[in-house]
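Now for a typical sample entry:
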Amino acid sequence: MSQLTGGYLLGLGSNINPQQNFAAIVRLLLDHFDALHLSRVLHIPPVGMNSHRDFLNAVAFLETDIPEAELKTICNKIEIALGRDRDDPDSKYKDRPADIDILAYFSSPAEWQSSASSITDEYFLYPLINELRAFLTGETTAPVMQMGTLVSTDGLTFGETAATIHRD
């Protein structure tokens, strides 16, 4: 793997039409960025909300130097385009077609050596954060025990293992 530059770690999720919407999240992020480094995609039960719909969740690393506010605008536009009501004050506790959270910014890969718990309190993402860090740095870590979920869109398939997805 080439030397990574700075960028953002994102949490990605969907529990409304998750196969279709998760694929759309990745496709729409690639409209704005040349590449997306993605963990495997996992089925995860909802946390902190009353729902019977499991999420598809993953973490992604975007190499970019855009300001966080600009990235947040892009993420919010993607969520809204896929049907999320960002004006609803309770949207955090409701089923959603798209959820894109900015977890952290790292100015260099060396900064990304902290434990997952220092990055987010969303404990269900810890194995995915660790997996993606290992994938990007060539480390060996304990594998995520759950099988990844295959996601397909426009001839692109991903989700079963960590991968780098390029726009073209």
